Amino acid sequence: xxxxxxxxxxxxxxxxxxxxxxxxxxxxxxxxxxxxxxxxxxxxxxxxxxxxxxxxxxxxxxxxxxxxxxxxxxxxxxxxxxxxxxxxxxxxxxxxxxxxxxxxxxxxxxxxxxxxxxxxxxxxxxxxxx
Length: 130
Prior knowledge:
The protein has a three-stranded mixed sheet with strand order 1-3-2, with helices on one face. The mean pLDDT is 92. It is built from five helices and three strands; from the N terminus they run αβββαααα. By secondary structure, the protein is an alpha+beta fold. α3 (77-87) runs antiparallel to α4.
């Protein structure tokens, strides 16, 4: 994530590593994602991988990164089962999204947002929405 203009994203990921640690290390990548999403988070055996759409603007990349980091932070065995079930066609994508965006995700998202607004935005005053 060292593309020009993406300094805010790099600072955000750095701050989230410190203020909202996850059960496993988190790797953030940019590349192709399905047309229906801007990014997604998956759990591998020993890490989380956040994939951000390659055509996201710097501001949108930050927003998606915070959202996906919250998924990594809130990940549970229930999500492991749901991911397996959706991959095997036992539940729909909609049902999977319901599991992914439950109360634990809401709390994790608030923690990630607090880390972003408290630690990152003060150093990037031009990034604040007006």
